[in-house]
Hints:
By secondary structure, this protein is an alpha+beta fold.
Amino acid sequence: MEIQAIHIREENQEIAEKWGLEDGQVVIMIHSGSRAWGGMMGPKYTKDFKAAMNKWGVGTPDPNLVFAPIDSDQGQQYINLMQSALNFAVVNRHMLAYGVREGFKEVFGSDFEAPVLYDLMHNYALKEFHRNQPMMVHRKGTTRALPAGHFLNTEAYKETGHPALIPGSMGTSSYIMVGAKGGEKNFYSICHGAGRVRSRRATKELITIDEFAESMKVGTDEEVLVNQRTLQSILDECPQAYKDVDQIIDSIEGAGLASVVAECKPLAVIKGV
Ligand SMILES: Nc1nc2c(ncn2[C@@H]2O[C@H](COP(=O)(O)O)[C@@H](O)[C@H]2O)c(=O)[nH]1
Ligand SMILES: [Mn+2]
């Protein structure tokens, strides 16, 4: 969870206003999934699908690549359980948001309000309609970014397109984007964050605590506050573990997939362990 201050991009000022965002506003970005419920299904269904494929006498070029027809028992079971994990994750994020609101109310008073801008997923499969046909779109480490006017948008976002949230790292900017028409070529999908540049282990071996502290501006007026007592305990999550988010955003905009509505600078980070 992160408390951030936003800067609105001039070219998308109108969209920002419609979404209730303004320059200098403080926002809260929350990131959580189903806490392993979804992850546990991967190995189980890889095994079950493989057994079913053997029975049906079908294979794939890669033994780790498995599939089941959507209408088969296995396919339906998988989809139902995946949806239960997605529901669990939505509730999880909303419970976190509730806790955040209660905390802010204690400090700022009971009339404090923080409406949800958007809630979205980045590991899921969803039946959608593209190129004049229904299809199951799998987004793994990918999030949806629909443009203005797209029929899949909910009513509130039909006119503008919906917000797509791209976290960077705890020491760098994150971004609120909106889908663009160019997204048609990849089913309106964009990356769900900067992404790792090195593994947790390599990060711990390579990055020093001093380098981590410097990237968090420790000891300066711009220090990004963290809830953990030591930076050592979250070294594998340091900004140096992640790619340069600004390059990633440039490539999304360059490919015409989405555009930045607001840049979000981190003020304080609460990391779960
Ligand atoms: N704003 C922040 N972004 C962060 C932080 N830690 C990681 N990240 C970014 O999130 C994405 C998505 O994470 P994933 O676990 O779902 O893959 C990741 O690629 C990073 O770019 C943080 O503390 N604050
Ligand atoms: Mn995630």
